[in-house]
Amino acid sequence: MRNSLIILCFLSLTWVNLISGRSVDQDAPVLTDVEKLSRLEFLEKHSEYKERLSEYEKSDCQMFKNSTDIYIVYLPGIEPFAAPCESRIEDGGWTVIQRRLEGNINFQRSWNEYREGFGDLRGDFFIGLEKLHRMTTAHTQELLVFYERSLLETKQEMYRNFLIGSEQEEYVLKSAKSNGLLGFRGNIGKKFSTYDRDNDEYWLDNCAKIYNGGWWFGKCIPEVVASNPNGPYLPEVTSKSRGIVFAGFKGIRAVQMMIRPQRKEDKKDPFGLKWE
């Protein structure tokens, strides 16, 4: 836990340095400058990388396990896209899929925007539901969530067999197996909802409208919404679950979600609990 705290503090300082002094459009789309961000041409010129390039270029950041940067991901049936890779946490190889740090990006977005992705890849962003679906179906994925309420209170949760359905299935959260943690309590089997696409189980209203962000909502009364990391960025803890919430913790000031192909060996469980 001490190492995790040090890492996340370092990440926070790094992210602040990256975005400080820049004017950020809250409605900015995900970066798409493929030529500027890709290093694949360099790797293709070096024969020792060709085998690894062929194996990993279609799906994730595994090939760039020892590097933290933005790379181009290739998947069948979808255009190549840019994604941040993270190597400094839990043996690296992570593709960052969501990040909240400064509150400078509006996460109350339409269905189409959540499908395609939005934000600043070097700051706050969401990678996009269609990309998530493609990545989680190309290989079995594990999900790591780092979240922070203060510099002295940092937590992480690991999930296995993380799987997202297709758009025809309303991007349903099919699986996220945990070791008894609460992060996705009540979300498994739920369809994704946005303010303009109400797929939740709350017949009185649209949970995405109430909580100001798209998520896999079930019933959205405060006592049930254990997680909504796409909620509005609030500087102070609130009595109701209207801000960034995860695993029942309110007033979260930073969160980062990452996936990578699930390791074949048994993952060491920091809590000593059995995976469900």
Automatic annotation (TrEMBL):
Xref: InterPro entries: Fibrinogen-like_C, Fibrinogen_a/b/g_C_1, Fibrinogen_a/b/g_C_dom, Fibrinogen_C-term_domain
PANTHER family to which the protein is assigned, alphabetical: FIBRINOGEN/TENASCIN/ANGIOPOEITIN
Native source species: Drosophila albomicans
Stretch forming the signal peptide: 1-21
GO cellular component term of the entry, any: extracellular space
Coiled coil regions in record: none
Alphabetical list of PROSITE patterns matching this protein: FIBRINOGEN_C_2
Protein known as: Ficolin-1-like isoform X1
UniProt entry keywords in alphabetical sequence: Signal
Ranges for domain Fibrinogen C-terminal: 52-263
